[in-house]
Amino acid sequence: MKYGTIVQVSGPVVDVRFSGETLPKIREALWVLVSGEKRVMKVAQHIGNDMVRCIMLAASEGLCRGMQVCAEGKTITVPVGEATLGRMFNVLGDVIDGEKTLAEPMQRCSIYRRPPARF
Fold first, then answer.
1. Gap between the Cα atoms of 71 and 88, Å rounded
2. DSSP character for 86?
3. Would you say the C-alpha torsion 56, 57, 61, 66 has a positive or negative sign?
4. Do the beta carbons of residue 66 and residue 5 sit within 8 Å?
5. DSSP of the chain
6. What residues form DSSP beta bridges with 110?
7. CA separation for the pair 14, 22 (Å, rounded)
8. Which residues pair with 52 in a beta bridge?
9. Rg (CA), the chain
10. In 3-state terms, what secondary structure has residue 116?
11. Hey, is 110 helix, strand or coil?
12. Please, which residues bridge with residue 87 across strands?
């Protein structure tokens, strides 16, 4: 796990500096805690040797310079399988249809994987 620091917030665009480590990869998911709420962003661009530019996938209100950001080394994943058929999810894989949450452990796949060849 890598940790960085927010250096600039411009609406949904957030620049994060990582010191002494390799940078997170493009499309990698990063998160930050804002008032106890986990907010996710994805790496969109490397800008220099120690900084990445990210796009927030949640509200950026409450973010400020100096906040710690965590990079777990993986992309955004969503649940897959029979239990997901007919259900509605947001881009982060959270249930948004008002029905019960999915039983864990649930198989999850990256939103960037190749689509299945057929059903």
1. 27
2. T
3. negative
4. yes
5. -EEEEEEEEETTEEEEE--SSPPPPTT-EEEEEETTEEEEEEEEEE-SSSEEEEEESS--TT--TT-EEEE-S---EEE-SGGGTT--B-TTS-B-SSSPPPPSS--EEETTSPPPS--
6. 77
7. 18
8. 16, 46
9. 16
10. coil
11. strand
12. none
pLDDT tens string 7-64: 999 999 999 999 877 899 999 999 999 999 999 999 999 998 899 999 999 899 999 9
Residues contacting residue 102 through CB under 8 Å, at least 6 positions apart: 79, 83, 84, 87, 95
Whole-model pTM? 0.84
> Amino acid identity of 2?
K
* Cβ 41 vs Cβ 9: under 8 Å: no
Query: Nearest CA to 30 among 11, 44, 19?
Result: 44
From first CA to last CA, the distance across the chain in angstroms is 35
CA atoms of 16 and 43, how far apart (whole Å): 9
